[in-house]
Structure formats: structure tokens, C-alpha cells
Design brief:
single chain; alpha/beta; Rossmann fold; Glutathione S-transferase Yfyf (Class Pi), Chain A, domain 2; 6-stranded antiparallel beta sheet; 6-stranded mixed beta sheet; 12 helices; 23% strand
């Protein structure tokens, strides 16, 4: 799976750019504020219909204009090419297209262009709130378990109905018990999917950390399911029913799940430097890409913003080596070309792009992947 062609219109300071000649490894370099991150942002818009720098269309769209448009062509081994298109307007209107036809859901884009982002916001996986880590977990399960997404939608409907009844305190015991049974069944299924995925993810993460930061010692990834692990979900809901009625919402369940990285039993964010935290984040993201490839025979596309920031040359090289060995397509930014130009095992697979004042120039053209 690889992005072959990208058209960008009115995304931040990039008024118009038509990019081709992508390699498996693509390095965008230029001064801060030149538009490097905006290229990655445009790719993310193509695959997720939103920016990774916030949800506001106003900051995404070039100043003074009404909308932005991104179009691209994705090649997939054995299944030809797929064209994708996304248009976002200041009015809030969102238009999605797949193969020239309107698409109903963002999940259709995600299916064709699965993305992994490593940037400054990725530190939320360690230092942020649980929703960021649940999103990370759900991304992985979504891509390896086709039953997860419809079950997740079912769970959202059930908990919305149950919470609405609890909040208004107008549901009779019998009606509430119906929604509770539905919720218990759906929540247990979601948890089973997550647990199965986690069992495969954790050892891959540990192996990556042994290569990226071997001096850390015992690095462990833990999954908290969102209720007492000694209980089934239906038992946990029964145990908190009275308290749920008092508080007006469902207190336990997959919506409370969390992931934690520990070093010798201590929270990673409490004992690691900023650079070490970044390597742990890279390990988490790389483990997901590795698992997706092994389980599904598919590769995601990595968007890596300013990798050299906070990493010395040795550790930057280690991350590049892991990205290289993974075989995924990578779009990566840096300030100086020399920072990343020579970090790869196959120079012929690297395409270099210089970005200046919103203009993107390909320095080396390679045969498209």
C-alpha cells in the first residue's frame, strides 16, 4: 500500500502543490514554518478527513479562503489504484470521495490509507489523558479485527441510551435492565477484541524497546480494561448499578479502559527523559505497524514530524532503521537534509523534497512505488 500522487490546495501556507515521484521513504526538509508539517497534515486529511493538529477547519484552510481540498492516488498490491478526495469548508461542510464517488463515512478513507502519526502531540500516549491511549488501542484493533467497528458503534448506542435514562432517572427497572444487558454483551465483546489484540501487541512492543532503549531494563505495557478484572462486565455493571443511578452515568466499562507503560514497575512518564519518552512512543507506533503487517498482510503509512527533535543522532538512526525494516511507506520531516538523508539502507528508495514558503520541490525523483 503506497501513496503515489498528492494534490494539495489551500492547506495552510500551501496554496497549490502537485506531488509525485514518492519513494518508500520520503524526506521533507526546510526551515521552521516553511510548510513541511502542512504536507503531512494534507496526507492525514486525505486518510482521516481531519488534521492531526486540531479539529478546526479555520486554522487548516489557507487564510481568507473558503475551503481546502486534498486529492490522492493510493496503490495497493494486487488491487490496482484507488483515488481519494477530501474537501473541508469553513462552513463545516465535509465532502469525501472514493474512486470519484461520494463516500458516506471516514472509515472508507481509513480502509484505503491507514495512517500512523509520530509528532509532538504523540507524547499524549504517555503524559496525556486516557482518551488518547484508547484511541491508539482502538486504531490497532480496528485494523486487525473487522468485527470491532460495528461492535464499537453498537456499544456507543447502548451506553448513550443507558446514560440518558440514568441521567433523567426516568427508566423503569425493567427498561434499564434491557439496556444494561445489551451494554454488558457489547462491552464484553469489545473487551475481548482488545484483550486479544493486546496479547499480540505487548510482546512486539517489548522487543522493539529492547532494540531502541536496551538500557531501560524491564519495560512493560499494561492494559486496564475499565473495571475489576476479577468480574465479568455484567457483574461489574450490577455492582455499580446503585451508584450509577445516583451519579447519572455508567461508571465502568470499555469507555474507561487505559494503557500504561511502566519501567521497573514505575510509570514511564515519571522516570524517562523527553527523548526517552519519544523513543517509547516510537516503539508503540512501530509495534502497531508491525502487528498490522503480520496479521493482515497490509502496511500503514507513517507520518513522522521532526524526528531529530529531542533525539540524538544515534537514537534517530535507530528509529529510522526500524522504520526502514518495517517496509512501510514513510513521510518524514526535518530542518536540514543531512539530518535524515543518509539514515536508510537503500538510498534508491529515498525521495527528497525541499519545502520553502509553501512551495514543495522534489530534489530526487524515483520510480513510483
Amino acid at each position: 500500500m503506497a501513496l503515489q500522487h498528492l494534490n494539495i490546495h489551500r492547506v495552510r501556507n500551501i496554496q497549490s502543490a502537485s506531488l509525485t515521484g514518492f519513494g518508500r521513504l520520503n524526506v521533507f526538509f526546510g526551515e521552521n514554518g516553511s510548510g513541511k508539517t502542512s504536507v503531512l497534515e494534507a496526507i492525514h486529511l486525505l486518510g482521516m478527513a481531519r488534521s492531526f493538529r486540531g479539529t478546526s477547519a479555520r486554522t487548516l484552510i489557507s487564510h481568507g479562503l473558503a475551503d481546502c481540498v486534498v486529492q490522492g492516488t493510493v496503490a495497493r498490491s494486487g488491487s490496482g489504484r484507488t483515488t481519494l478526495g477530501v474537501q473541508r469548508a469553513l462552513s463545516g461542510e465535509l465532502s469525501l470521495r472514493v474512486q470519484g464517488a461520494p463516500a458516506k463515512a471516514v472509515s472508507e478513507l481509513v480502509e484505503h490509507l491507514p495512517l500512523q502519526v509520530i509528532n509532538a502531540d504523540s507524547f499524549a500516549l504517555l503524559t496525556g489523558s486516557p482518551p488518547a491511549r484508547r484511541q491508539y488501542l482502538n486504531w490497532g484493533v480496528f485494523h486487525v479485527e473487522h468485527r470491532f467497528f460495528p461492535e464499537w458503534q453498537r456499544f456507543q448506542r447502548c451506553i448513550k441510551q443507558r446514560n440518558s435514562g440514568l441521567r433523567r432517572d426516568k427508566l423503569a427497572d425493567r427498561e434499564l435492565s434491557v439496556w444494561t444487558r445489551e451494554l454488558a454483551d457489547s462491552g464484553q465483546r469489545l473487551n475481548d477484541f482488545r484483550q486479544d489484540y493486546f496479547a499480540d501487541l505487548a510482546p512486539r512492543f517489548r522487543a522493539l524497546m529492547e532494540r531502541l532503549l536496551p538500557q531501560l531494563g524491564d519495560v512493560e505495557l499494561r492494559l486496564r480494561q475499565g473495571w475489576d478484572k476479577r468480574l465479568s462486565y455484567v457483574e461489574a455493571l450490577a455492582a455499580t448499578l446503585h451508584s450509577d443511578r445516583e451519579k447519572g452515568f455508567t461508571q465502568v466499562g470499555p469507555q474507561r479502559a487505559d494503557l500504561k507503560v511502566t519501567i521497573e514497575g514505575r510509570a514511564a512518564e515519571d522516570v524517562l527523559s523527553r527523548g526517552q519518552q519519544k523513543l517509547v512512543i516510537c516503539g508503540l507506533k512501530l509495534a502497531q505497524g508491525q502487528l498490522m503487517q503480520e496479521k493482515m498482510g497490509r502496511q500503514c503509512c507513517y507520518l513522522v514530524d521532526d524526528l531529530p527533535s529531542e533525539l540524538d543522532a544515534r537514537h534517530c538512526l535507530r528509529v529510522c532503521e526500524e522504520l526502514d525494516q518495517l517496509g512501510a511507506q514513510v513521510f518524514i520531516t526535518c530542518v536540514e537534509a543531512a539530518d535524515l538523508a543518509d539514515q536508510w539502507s537503500e538510498p534508491a528508495e529515498v525521495a527528497m523534497f525541499h519545502v520553502e514558503h509553501g512551495q514543495v520541490t522534489a530534489l530526487v525523483q524515483h520510480e513510483q512505488v
